[in-house]
Write a structure and sequence with these properties.
The chain has about 120 residues and is of the alpha+beta class. It is built from 4 helices and 4 strands, in the order ααααββββ. The protein has helices at about 5-15, 20-40, 50-55, 55-65; strands at about 75-85, 85-95, 100-105, 115-120. The chain has a 4-stranded antiparallel beta sheet with strand order 1-2-3-4. A hairpin with a 4-residue loop joins β2 and β3 (about 100-105). It is globular. The termini are far apart.
């Protein structure tokens, strides 16, 4: 086979991941969840059973209290991604009017979210 070509293709896939339809769809879902959390809701069909357990009424109220006042994100960009333990981990930079946050997600190969964490940058 053409080993240098194969390696170049793999590097290209790593560097230009944001161009893939799967990543575009995932970004849209991550943005949707962020907006829902600002309102204290979440679309349960996007989550694994574990994540559904985590996002209790109390957790959703906490997210609404913390994220709601921050307003609509000005920027939402994929910073890095990788696969670990069978989950696709993606980290996004979220710029808001007065603060910058990092959203880290872990998703199953089927695309359900196992984790959705919001961290202060």
């Amino acid at each position: 086979g053409n080993l240098p070509g194969t390696i170049a293709d793999q590097i290209r896939e790593i560097l230009f991941v944001a161009d893939s339809p799967a990543d575009t769809q995932k970004l849209a879902q991550v943005r949707e969840i962020f907006a829902d959390l600002q309102r204290g809701t979440i679309k349960r069909s996007l989550l694994t059973a574990n994540a559904n357990d985590y996002f209790s009424a109390t957790a959703l109220a906490d997210f609404k209290a913390g994220l709601g006042p921050l307003g609509t994100p000005k920027e939402f960009e994929l910073k890095r991604q990788g696969v670990r333990g069978g989950f696709v981990t993606r980290a996004y930079l979220v710029k808001l009017a007065k603060t910058t946050l990092e959203v880290v997600t872990r998703a199953t190969p089927e695309g359900k979210f196992e984790e959705y964490q919001v961290n202060v940058e």
